[in-house]
Design a protein that fits this description.
Layout (H helix, E strand, L loop, with lengths): L9 H14 L1 H10 L11 H9 L5 H13 L5 H14 L4 H13 L3 H4 L4 H9 L6 H10 L12 H10 L8 H8 L6 H16 L6
Helix pairs in contact: 1-2, 2-12, 3-6, 3-9, 5-6, 8-9, 10-12
Length: about 210
């Protein structure tokens, strides 16, 4: 993966956090408040994208409950998902829309190993070509399954709310505005995202979307 920096260890997270703190007093203050940031890596592949789809626009608790049912039923790989079809996926608790997305992902034949070696923008492009995989889902996958260090997900409401709190903004920044703000956190935007998710949890007493 020449030229592609990834987050693999807590030391990588610490390096990114130190850099962010050195660049931005507001982020330095936030890091001091929340302490060491989590690694939050997960295995890549079909299940990780599917899990992100399940997490779209629902609470963490709801997403975890649905995912637990899918795991128990063995429906976290393309073959079983296709074999289960609409009836089996509905029985596991998926909505009509997410059933369509699950089947589209299972049919897509994505080469997940190849995704490890392509640039961030190409990862997003390849994933969002699949029905139901939006930019948010692709960015979450790139950050936490592929460990890309310079990806952010500005469409996430928890990240938007955390930005509002950290920077004492009058209103929550919209996706376009937060994407522009995140350019200041390059090349460690994914560490900034971890900070924002953690800050949101501490400030609100609950998890964000993922």
């Amino acid at each position: 993966m020449t030229g592609i920096r990834t987050i693999e260890t807590d030391a990588d997270i610490a390096e990114g956090a130190d850099w962010l703190a050195s660049q931005d007093p507001a982020l330095a203050h936030a890091i001091d408040l929340v302490g060491p940031l989590p690694l939050r890596r997960r295995p890549d592949g079909f299940a990780a994208v599917f899990n992100a789809i399940i997490g779209q626009q629902v609470s963490t608790a709801s997403a975890n409950a649905i995912w637990a049912r899918l795991e128990a039923a063995g429906l976290i790989a393309p073959g079983p998902v296709l074999a289960a079809g609409e009836v089996g996926l509905r029985a596991a608790g998926l909505s009509r829309q997410k059933i369509a997305y699950a089947l589209a992902l299972a049919e897509a034949g994505i080469d997940y190993e190849a995704l490890r070696r392509v640039p961030d923008g190409e990862v997003i492009k390849m994933l969002t070509a699949v029905k139901g995989v939006g930019v948010w889902t692709a960015e979450i996958y790139a950050m936490f399954a592929l460990g890309r260090c310079d990806v952010f997900a500005p469409g996430d409401l928890a990240l938007q709310e955390a930005a509002k709190l950290i920077y004492d903004l009058p209103a929550r920044p919209r996706e376009k505005e937060l994407r522009q703000m995140s350019e200041n956190w390059s090349p460690w935007r994914a560490v900034a995202a971890r900070l924002f998710f953690t800050y949101y949890r501490v400030a609100k007493g609950r998890e964000g979307i993922i």
